[in-house]
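Objective 1b: paired records.
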Amino acid sequence: MSKIKNAIVCGAGGFIGGHLVKKLKEEGYWVRGIDLKRNEYGNEHADDFIIGDLRDPVVCENLFDRNIEEVYQLAADMGGAGYIFTGEHDAQVMHNSATINLNMAESSRKHGVNKIFYSSSACMYPAYNQEDPDNPQCSEDSAYPAAPDSEYGWEKLFSERLYLSYNRNYGLNVRIARFHNIFGPLGTWDGGKEKAPAAICRKVAQAKDGGEIEVWGDGKQTRSFLYIDECVDGVRRLMKSEFTGPVNIGSDEMISINDLVKMVAGVAAKKITIKNIPGPTGVRGRNSDNQLIYEKLGWKPSLPLVDGISRTYSWIKSQVDLSR
């Protein structure tokens, strides 16, 4: 029998973290989760769940009271466009996330962690390569000259370099992935920090047949969205590989936001009118370039967007119905 591996998942109370813990448990890991809060939808499967603030280096140190082979660092101050792109939260986003990464990189080094995963973001890509909604450039080698469109993206880029520096100088075995708009059930769907798929699913679920929903911007901005199960699979493949990254983990099925509304409305079997209003939108176009991850890991997403949206809409509708 193979030895049980011990892992820490930072941000285990969050959307991706909760799903990742579940996957690791299915693979036979002993998992310690840590977050400022418990998972609000009960997606909690860790053997040990700690309520703690990773901005405190003492809290980080106390995670390593046993031999830890793997660390998954997903904890960050983040949210959707309504949180990231207003400029109102820039200082706390940068301070909170950078502090967490500085602490976890150092603690992982000191305690001889075998491998650490860091979840970066497509938000670190240069805004100048994402002005054409029909032809964004998001290959991994396009990251420089750096010009992210948000302070959130700048912090992600800084932390990528932090982990790579620890790799060069201390031999810390790191894996870095740039997530592209991960969505699915058991994630934030209201309150201001939700991302576009969840927000649209909520608005459509709340609207009457023949009703109208608001969409920020002209709705012609494009994105790709990756279903949560595929994201977790990509993370596990990267961790099992000898490839450091950074590498995109996303879908290359690009869609405009207005067309995403039409897709959700179709899933809901509702006629919905779109009212485009001023609001934060981020870059004009973004799509995952999956050439490198397919070359290095043989990975590519297989679930069509409409199938993931159908699963997500069903769950969010149930939450909307419960909240009425």
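Objective 1b, second protein:
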Amino acid sequence: MGQAYETLTHYNPPGSDVEISPELALSWESSDDAMEWTFVLRQDVTFHDGEPFNAAAVKALVENVRDSDFATSWVFGPIAEIEVVDDHTIKFTNEWPAKLDLIFSSAFGAWMVSPNALENGADWFAEGRTAGTGPYQITSRETGARIVMERYEDYWGGWEGNKFDTVVFEYVADPTVREQMIRSGDADLTRELDFENIASLQEEDGVSVKIEPSYANQFIMLNTAKAPLDNVLVRQALAASYPYEEVIANLVGGLATPAVGAIPQSMWGAAGAGFPAQDLDKAKELLAEAGMPDGGFEIEYWAYEGDPTNEQLGEVWVPALRELGIDLNITVIDFNAAMDAFWNDPESAHHAVSLNWFPTYVTPFDPLFSPFATDEYFNVAAYSNEEFEGLIFDADAETALNEEAAIDLFQQANQILIDDAAAIFAYDMPMVWEIRSDLSGYYYSPAYGTVVQVYDLER
């Protein structure tokens, strides 16, 4: 997606001179109350299908996302009215104050797509087509195997220098095979390798390891719809039993930082929550209070395939759970299959499932809302709490004009999640890339999760 599509604005890495810079929008301005925003768009840009990028295309995209049931439709929720001022000027009027320059930097939902392609529907895209303004477009796709992308000749950024004409994404589930490929040079870029091998990779000739800050975190969702985890005391006991320090020290090589709930420490609004710690005595007391002093039950733990850490997060938990009289059964499962199984019948799905989250855009609202709001697609905890949701929506409405008030509300909501033990918040993740050292131009912004721009790379 990040190679084929672009946003109006771009969120820069921490420490940059400016937080948000132009991409498809050249400039923008807002009213003092953040209710009206006007964007001036880049000219002479076309979509992959040859259609012009203009204000009408932006309007069509925003309306398509906002009025849909997409998991990311909420990003344009504040926008009430859209006015095409001229071909390259567009004005938005909000229902409540909102930072649209931030929202239009979103890694999900805010990609600009050709209006003609939108009319073709999801099946057209699923066949392996792109209709963005980005430097590359899909030319072939083998489901579950590879995607081949070729440069878009009319890309507005041009093709000067020694840029790559072709990009091949290989889907290789086995991290050991991926590691062999990056060591041998059969792959140029990869991630999600075993943390225990990072030190040796750092010594490998021809390989450069990039350990980046991120806005991502790793947690274990606890299914509140499935007994005995429908009892908050049991969930609190599980949270107290988790070996947080061991996980950070051993599974992620000491590279991660302790979590303070759903909001990553690196993101604004995170301060205020305490660090979790393993306390088996407390866990036993909570189980006794729940009427299960000897445990006596099993936990079905699902780990998504392709990332060894997901499975290891369960394995390292086993000794503590055994001490509580609880057995942990680990199943490695395809992500889409797991999501389908949960939404078909939450009560017969997992008890616990590992999930890593990086934001749609850089706001505490997202890691609180998307995985934990009632009936949201990624809420595989089946969690629902009206007070919690009220707080995060109030906080979102305060963000544009009163960030201090927003932070206070976000922190209150975060504490409710911790108290309800909707998840076990393991750690805030680093983003680790392994890249062949003969490549130059590497650039990474943590606002975009797992995207390294191939267009910037040269050999």
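Residues 172-210+433-459 form a domain with the D-Maltodextrin-Binding Protein; domain 2 fold (CATH 3.40.190.10). Residues 361 and 444 are 15 Å apart (CA to CA).
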